[in-house]
From TrEMBL:
<dbReference type="InterPro" id="IPR047811">
    <property type="entry name" value="CytC_ox_assmbl_put"/>
</dbReference>
<protein>
    <submittedName>
        <fullName>Cytochrome oxidase small assembly protein</fullName>
    </submittedName>
</protein>
<keyword id="KW-1133">Transmembrane helix</keyword>
<feature type="transmembrane region" description="Helical">
    <location>
        <begin position="12"/>
        <end position="33"/>
    </location>
</feature>
<keyword id="KW-0812">Transmembrane</keyword>
<keyword id="KW-0472">Membrane</keyword>
Length: 36
């Protein structure tokens, strides 16, 4: 693996992680709002 590939893999991983986190936060917020 070249440094360029590693860099793009890290960027892709961060993007995927942030998307997953956003979905999780939205899901938790929805649960909390529906409980009231």
């Amino acid at each position: 693996m070249t440094p360029e590939q590693k860099k793009s893999n890290v960027r892709l991983g961060l993007i995927l992680a942030s998307v997953a986190l956003a979905i999780l936060v939205g899901f938790v917020a929805k649960l909390l709002l529906l409980q009231r």
